[in-house]
Amino acid sequence: MGCRTRLGESSLHRRMKERVSQQLAEEGYAVFFEPPCAPSRYLSWVSYRPDILGIRASEGRQEYALVECETRPSERRLASKNYKSVDIQTTLHSELLLRRILVVPRGKLASVDRSVRRSWETWIYEGGAFQRFPRV
Q1: 63 class by beta-carbon count within 10 Å (0-12 exposed, 13-18 middle, 19+ buried)
Q2: What percent of the chain has pLDDT over 90?
Q3: H or E segment at 20?
Q4: End-to-end C-alpha distance for the chain, whole angstroms
């Protein structure tokens, strides 16, 4: 599984992405790094590319995890990513779960507006581990 490195991406950002991908894989998600297009026929987006996309499906259930790793988080930066353009189509008799996960380094949570934390799970990264907070 390995994390693709982008030019100009910090080592902290790479470590956060790698650790999130490991965590999602442990939870049973298929993990995709910065997919240029949605790898599922039930999912689409316009002008958006998450840092990590996780997909987990079972009988009667579709689950998606859209992950943004931000070393310097801000509401403006997150809004500029166009994450609201994601469209999901469910199958008949299927339950849908969409998780938006924002990963920030320890000490940066204060710069994340509470309104963002209402629609995103927040994972605080420190030393290869996470402190996880559900949406508020």
Answers
A1: middle
A2: 47
A3: helix 11-26
A4: 32
